[in-house]
């Protein structure tokens, strides 16, 4: 018996612990001198096998054979301040939840000092403890009237700080609570300490400048110059409580009470759900996919296929959010360091919430757990990390024949696979959905608490870069840029991307080819090489890109079969060429990149994003520089989309969900509307509002 049903299944808890035990044993047997002194595991994750092997295993090719499973193990050594990366062959025989055979380390190396693995939550919590017990920080908060017992800090990646090369760093955003349970984000403190994340050494305390430091020279530009400045005017954090938890609001405002009049909406499926789950293979309404998951991407949709009247048609080998970055527009030190790569720097999958039935997810729900590693090497499980359910999606299609009022209407439905991740103050919900009409949608919901900084008493506002969401609390403007990695296999591995613009006909009114002046037409460009395929959204041309298979055409239109990429949420990175962010986020330089597939090219900002300087010779820039053919080849399409967040006071003290979406829509793929056979059923439970029963439901989602 093998330990896994599918080569892309995430590591089981047994596999994780086998890998960490094998690593410890391997290290124990090393000679002194080259031996790590203390192992703190960082990540243990599946090394996805080469695509050609998986395709063979899946049956796309003739010869299928078992695929050995391997884990990538990354750990830190606090004593030698080093980080290590290993490859472990996993046990081939697991029975009854126990490994019968042993795992074995087959490769390992010490990482360069500029390769910093992601920051774990345990490490962020550690930084908070260091801050709370550091004499200099205690003194600094006492100076502004903060009780050190009520001090909290969010550890953050630092991007790059040129003052401390080769060190693993965290910058800490400081806050205070006014009482237990109070929202700490209402009380930001006026300084930012920087810690060595290996040793806990406090390296510096940085003081952000005010919008107007009257009487002072303008703030110098570099981090080094800034650290040599005298400490600026200190001031206490804003003291007014700004809570979102009802029980906390009530303590500040005894008249507060939950609004009334919201009667329950129950979602019921009396005959059960319409999907099936076999291991991690989900089947629903002609769709089939394997649901992968890892600490970094979070949700991964593998081998997405569609059963088109008995023919299983391959669509996507792998879909995931491969990277994201949240750049802030603050150009003054140290605000320039705020551009968190939540995928690569933290591992957003590892930050998944345990979802709650009836609160996060309504109706008939299936959950999947997610397994990770603790620093100790033991596994840990986030229960119900992934939610799978169906939702009504409004009308699918409708027509009324106006002559005889004959009506035909069918309802659409989505199968939704989702998770929600908490990255310190912010929440991201990732919702992949499949539709009855062949559409795949990715909706990302942004919520949580916006990042804020403290303003000094009487400090002037700078309305062009931040919003004073509540007195003396400034929320700086920022972006959320996501990199959707699409490894397509539209009716086969040979695909290409065609750009379609819609433009007016060239001639003016009265001209020979546009006499009445109303003409418009599409212009197509088939991308030939990676450099040729660099493209940006153009709203004036209603620009779309279609991933198509040039070897197969629609029976009627003659167009290549394809899937169209559509989004109303293309956001452009504002950071200048040569800036830290530009160098580190090559995926965000343009909305579209296309590369020829090669194994192990999953992450466009590199494997080790934390403190990586990037530039022009790494990750996506390297793959693009090859300028390989992407026409009728095995290709990967990278789509960057997102939101610009000019914060509103209404986003405070907790932000109503903001959404960004991308659709992958069949285009010349199906012979006709693939949902013609969806029955026009009538919901027997729907009724006139006046007849609806009064039901009182006291359950709530505040836990
Ligand atoms: Cu935002």
TrEMBL record:
Broad EC category: oxidoreductase
Domain Copper amine oxidase catalytic: 265-676
Region of interest: Disordered: 206-246
Assembly behavior: Homodimer.
EC number: 1.4.3.-
PANTHER family attached to this UniProt entry: COPPER AMINE OXIDASE, COPPER AMINE OXIDASE 1-RELATED
Name listed for the protein in its UniProt record: Amine oxidase
